[in-house]
Design a protein that fits this description.
Chain lengths: 243, 259
């Protein structure tokens, strides 16, 4: 594939906080239509990397390009959908109002928001609870509301931070199917996760972070499936935790 | 421009929903009733002086309530977004921090104005019920009060990005209430102090938000008539410039906030 098909391009990216490097010299590419799992222990630099990809944080050094531009430019973010790891969405709104709010922020017209809201609430399983205030939602339901808001602008790039957190087994299966459908439609998906099984099932490629460094990048098909070199074993081996 | 309009509309609607669905609405109703009851008690006395006194009390309550609502609205714009982590999906959307700040500010001001309008409806209704008239200086007084509320929201918004909620609400209330009651006496007070203290008091007078400029309660109560049109415009211009400065500082503070 040519370089212009790289949806995400990180070149030697470093981000330091008060001298301590949360991400150190990270280079990473994500091609159009790819699904990449971003793995690592807590504090490995996954969320910091995601924040840089969204333009929420500027790198201390190196370059971050998303969809061919600087993600701190709001025009680039029109094409990005993002779901944070944990967010307690506005408790006084219901799911429908939440999506109407985010639709307005994305600049969508009311008619488009209404039609997308109906199908999204249906696909994330919140149609029956659409008029309930979000303060009455469980963690898993809030997570599903978060997925819906991330998909509202029909993004080309979907960035998900720990998307399976709080989801019950059935919701996980539905969400996995949803992501597969998005992949089939050519969407590019980047997600961080501690769920190695889900990552193995969904991803084309994985990257493993350790203390700010990317210690492994490669296709899932090369490592998964033979029982001897599955993702869990690779993950432990890469992090030096294998027994 | 269309994008900005839609984003602003969404933020205004969010502020309205949050204000009117919170417990604030119950506080508003209770406070409104607290306003109505003493005013309705004015009828049996019938004396002009007693009526004026109650008008003055009612207007002071309206000012107090509006300050309470405005400071709360300003304080709630950003800290809850950081605490609940909704700031991340919000800023991951196609909106800059500057636009978000302006949109949220407009939303908080519009929601606070709706509460103030509610209080004034109660006040005017109580005056009319007692057989009083609609003073000619009333529109001017209301406009200046609305401008004060916009200023108070901006003060609270800036404070919310710099200090904790309790510190912000306390400091903002002290500064605004202090200036409201004592602002016009500060220059006179400064003259009687030693040079160093005098300089401090004069500096405070120069930079503090002059809440007293917007207060037309005495004119309303005593029927002293409207202020000169030029003065009115200058006070409004003062509010606009002061708000612009506060929002610029708030934008700087928000830009420096670590996400």
């Amino acid at each position: 594939m040519s370089e212009c098909s790289d949806i995400v391009q990180l070149e030697g990216v470093t981000r330091a906080f008060a001298g301590a490097k949360a991400v150190d010299g990270l280079s990473l590419k994500l091609k159009a239509g790819e699904v990449m799992g971003f793995l690592g222990t807590n504090g490995a630099g996954k969320t910091t990397t995601i924040k840089m990809m969204l333009g929420l944080l500027a790198p201390t050094s190196g370059s971050v390009k998303v969809l061919g531009g600087d993600p701190s430019d709001p025009r680039i973010r029109v094409h990005i959908g993002y779901m944070p790891e944990v967010a307690t969405y506005y408790p006084y709104l219901n799911a429908r109002e939440l999506l109407a709010f985010y639709g307005g922020i994305c600049g969508l017209d009311a008619k488009t928001v209404r039609s997308r809201t109906d199908s999204l609430l249906e696909s994330v399983g919140l149609a029956d609870a659409a008029k309930r205030p979000l303060k009455t939602y469980s963690k898993g339901m809030l997570q599903r509301a978060g997925i819906a808001q991330a998909l509202l602008n029909d993004p080309d790039l979907l960035v998900l931070d720990e998307p399976f957190t709080g989801l019950d087994p059935l919701a996980r299966i539905h969400f996995r199917e949803l992501l597969r459908n998005l992949k089939e439609r050519g969407k590019t998906i980047f997600f961080s996760s501690h769920e190695l099984g889900e990552t193995e099932l969904l991803c084309d490629r994985v990257a493993i972070m350790k203390k700010g460094h990317c210690v492994y990048q490669g296709p899932v098909k090369d490592i998964a499936g033979d029982g001897a070199t599955n993702l869990e074993r690779l993950f432990l081996k890469t992090l030096g935790e294998a027994k | 421009m269309k994008l900005f309009a839609r984003q602003t509309c969404a933020l205004v609607k969010l502020s309205f929903i949050e204000l009117w669905r919170r417990n604030d609405i119950f506080a508003l109703v209770l406070l409104g009733l607290a306003l109505m009851v003493p005013l309705s008690m004015a009828t049996p006395f019938g004396a002009d002086g007693a009526s004026r006194y109650l008008d003055e009390m009612a207007l002071l309550l309206v000012w107090g309530f509006s300050l309470f609502i405005a400071l709360g609205a300003g304080q709630r714009l950003f800290p809850p977004e950081f605490e609940s982590r909704t700031i991340y999906p919000l800023l991951a959307k196609p909106i800059s921090r500057g636009r978000l700040l302006v949109g949220k500010y407009i939303g908080a001001v519009a929601a606070s104005w709706s509460a103030l309008a509610f209080f004034y409806v109660l006040f005017v209704a109580s005056v009319l019920v007692r057989g009083g008239g609609f003073p000619s200086e009333m529109p001017q007084a209301i406009v200046l009060h609305f401008a004060f509320v916009a200023l108070a929201v901006a003060v609270s918004l800036l404070g919310s990005l710099i200090v904790t909620a309790s510190a912000n609400l306390s400091l903002s209330a002290i500064v605004l209430v202090g200036m409201f009651f004592f602002g016009r006496r500060l220059p006179e007070y400064a003259e009687g102090l030693n040079p160093a203290l005098s300089w401090v008091v004069k500096t405070i007078y120069a930079i503090a938000p002059h809440a007293e400029f917007f207060d037309m309660r005495q004119r309303l109560v005593h029927g002293w008539g409207a202020v000169d049109g030029g003065v009115f415009v200058v006070v409004l211009a003062y509010a606009v410039v002061y708000i612009a400065i506060l929002l610029s500082l708030a934008s700087f503070a928000l830009g420096r906030k670590r996400l």
